[in-house]
Specification:
This protein is about 0% helix and about 35% strand. The chain has about 450 residues and is mainly beta. The strands form 7 sheets. A 6-stranded antiparallel beta sheet has the order 1-2-27-26-25-24, with no helix packed on it. The chain has a 4-stranded antiparallel beta sheet with strand order 3-30-29-28, with no helix packed on it. The chain has a 4-stranded antiparallel beta sheet with strand order 4-5-6-7, with no helix packed on it. β16 (about 225-230) and β17 (about 240-245) form a beta hairpin. The two termini are about 25 Å apart. Bound molecules: calcium ion (4 copies).
Length: about 450
């Protein structure tokens, strides 16, 4: 079955027919297209759920347009689309950076409720902000409420020039068990050696100062280029997290990449619980990293590590790890891109249970895949279960040459009403001036159990 909705092809693999099961579940229904304002503004290079900032029960969608080298006077913008029953193409709130070229919107996250007023809060990174010295970086925090304004309620700065504080962000979970949501900020060139560092904030203790700083080891590793809250991997009641350093080199092999996994707890140790390293030169393990919920159906949260330049011909690889009391370096399942230079694993998203079988499912983006059109991009969906195979169960592809479908992907829960989530995929068309402003496609999707 092929649905053609506004030029994008939604292909549902009819494995289900073999079992004579209805295909009603698992449908992605195209809901609409959002567009950026300018060429080169990089609209859609970063997208995220904003959580529920106005307290109406619907989560919000955040889309960043951090700008590019070609737009030196553009500070960057973030567009907020409030959840609601109808698709609307216009943003409800627009946040702007304050300093030309600061890359406001280079990272975005929901924070959960960090000031304990009952409304979700959000953070925006601007890694080239120079308030505290050249390209020290800044994170802008906005508290939610029924009357949301565009003035940041709190700003946090990096420690050193050129450390790129705010290049990565994640939040919205309680890591130390004090009942308040915590958050993590990466600075990929921070620390004494410029190896990168990660700042962990526990707002239940102090909202303005990090409780813990984790440091990389070698210059150029880009420790903290990715930070991710992963869910409770060992089921001890504390949410766990990970740090990616895609430029990590080891034994003379450059840029193999690395991921460190840390346990949450009343006291959070600086020593990683598990370290995963890439194998091939320039394969970038840990460029992406995401918690994916409970995919295998046990009581442990699972996670996925991306290796976008992995595989024999840079098809890209995504490694699925099941949580448990013990973690092993060997993944439970390894998904590979279909064509050379697909860069599968560039993006990963938790999608909850989209086919109603009680197991959470996974989405992985390959923005340089050419299934639909030359480097139009593709997103693969893998249905969860106790014994997963390596074949994608459903996919979407970009609608035109160089669209880069899947550059960034996210799920916004209850965006279209209770239990009706938005699966959101960007097609920013970067590195391609004739593409025009970036685009973002929204699909409505029912959440199963
Ligand atoms: Ca809302
Ligand atoms: Ca709040
Ligand atoms: Ca845990
Ligand atoms: Ca499922």
């Amino acid at each position: 079955m092929i649905n053609r909705n506004k030029g994008i092809y939604v292909v549902i693999i009819l494995i289900s027919l073999l079992f004579n099961v209805s295909v009603a579940w698992g449908d992605l229904n195209f809901a609409g297209e959002l567009r950026g304002e300018y060429n080169q503004d990089r609209y859609g290079t970063v997208i995220s759920s904003g959580g529920d900032i106005n307290g109406d029960g619907y989560e919000e969608l955040l889309i960043g347009a951090p700008g590019s080298f070609e737009m030196p006077d553009f500070a960057g913008k973030v567009f907020i689309y409030l959840g609601g029953k109808k698709f609307r193409a216009k943003p409800d709130i627009v946040l702007s950076g304050k300093e030309p070229g600061e890359s406001f919107g280079c990272a975005l996250t929901s924070l959960g409720d960090i000031n304990n007023d009952g409304y979700g809060d959000i953070a925006v990174g601007a890694h080239k902000n120079s308030d505290g010295g050249p390209e020290t970086g800044m994170v802008y925090i906005y508290f939610g409420g029924t009357a949301f304004d565009t003035i940041p309620d709190l700003t946090l700065e990096g420690d050193r020039p050129y450390e790129w504080f705010g290049i990565s962000l994640d939040g919205g979970a309680d890591l130390n068990g004090d009942g308040t949501s915590d958050f993590i900020i990466g600075a990929s060139y921070g620390g004494d050696q410029g190896a990168g560092c990660v700042y962990l904030y526990l707002p239940g203790i102090d909202i303005t100062k990090p409780a813990l700083i984790l440091n990389g080891e070698s210059a150029g590793d880009c420790y903290g280029n990715k930070v991710a809250i992963l869910g409770d991997i060992n089921n001890d009641g504390f949410t766990d997290f990970g740090v990616g350093l895609f430029h990590y080199s080891h034994d003379g092999i450059n840029n193999i990449g690395r991921v460190d996994i840390f346990k949450g707890g009343n006291i959070i140790s600086k020593d990683p619980w598990l370290t995963l390293k890439g194998k091939q030169k320039d394969e970038w393990l840990g460029f992406s990293l995401s918690g994916v919920g409970n995919v295998s159906g046990d009581e442990y949260a699972d996670f996925v590590v991306g290796i976008p330049h992995g595989g024999k011909n840079e098809e890209g690889v995504a490694l699925f790890y099941q949580g448990g009391q013990v973690l092993r370096e060997t993944p439970n399942v390894s998904f590979t891109g279909t064509l050379q230079k697909d860069l599968m694993g560039y993006s990963i998203a938790r999608v909850w249970d989209i086919n109603g079988d009680g197991f959470e499912d996974i989405a992985v983006g390959s923005p340089f895949n050419s299934t639909g059109s030359f480097k139009a991009g593709r997103v693969n969906f893998y249905y969860g279960g106790p014994a997963m195979d390596t074949q994608s169960d459903m996919h979407i592809v970009g609608d035109r040459k160089n669209a880069r479908c899947g550059y960034s992907i996210t799920t916004v829960r209850s965006f279209f009403g209770k239990g009706i989530n938005a699966f959101v995929v960007s097609l920013p068309g970067i590195n391609n001036s004739e593409e025009g402003p970036g685009r973002v496609f929204l699909y409505s999707i029912m959440e199963g159990k």
